[in-house]
Amino acid sequence: MSSGQCMMPLCALAILLSAPGQASEPAHQSIGNPLVAATYGAMPRKVPDERREPVPLIAPELWITVTDYPMHAALDGLEADVETELTVAEDGRVSECVIISSSGDALLDSKTCKLLVRRARFKPALDDEKRPITGVYRFSHSWRIPPSRGLSDARKSATQYSRR
């Protein structure tokens, strides 16, 4: 039997589902799993390199924590969302932070970027030769008053802080 023929029921299904007038490759040749492809004598498709974009080294949720919630925002009862675009340099550090969607509070926006520049680290984006290049990563954060730092607690903390 020639390599272009297909003996699997899956091939018949693939041929039936293909668009009219289009040639369909046998299903076993389009399988991306190398083990399955090797079993049926087909070469696996090239899987695109997923590291072309920056990849966070730690979970992005850990970049900004509840302990980072600004006191002024707690005193004002401010809760808001901030969306950023981070430029990630070849060394994996954030070289620039741009606010795409503001929280409406300049101090919250500023604090968001300061924390991200200080804490966010990445595997850098890669070019076609797998060399590190500058890349872009979008990050959103929701500033919410931590349960243990309700408005009354925040006022107490602010009062205690101002007495020192």
UniProtKB/TrEMBL annotation:
InterPro entries of this UniProt entry?
TonB/TolA_C, TonB_C
* Classification via Gene3D superfamilies: 3.30.1150.10
Task: Determine if Metal-binding is one of this entry's keywords.
Answer: no
Q: Give compartment(s).
A: Membrane
Q: Name one GO cellular component term.
A: membrane
Membrane topology, from the record: Single-pass membrane protein
User: In the UniProt record, does the keyword Membrane occur?
Assistant: yes
UniProt-listed Pfam families: TonB_C
Any one GO biological process: transmembrane transport
The record's annotation in SUPFAM superfamilies points to: TolA/TonB C-terminal domain
| Primary location recorded for the protein, binned into one broad class | membrane
Please provide the record's keywords in A-Z order.
Answer: Membrane, Signal, Transmembrane, Transmembrane helix
Tell me the leader sequence span: 1-23
Where does the TonB C-terminal domain lie?
A: 54-148
- Protein name per Swiss-Prot or TrEMBL: Energy transducer TonB
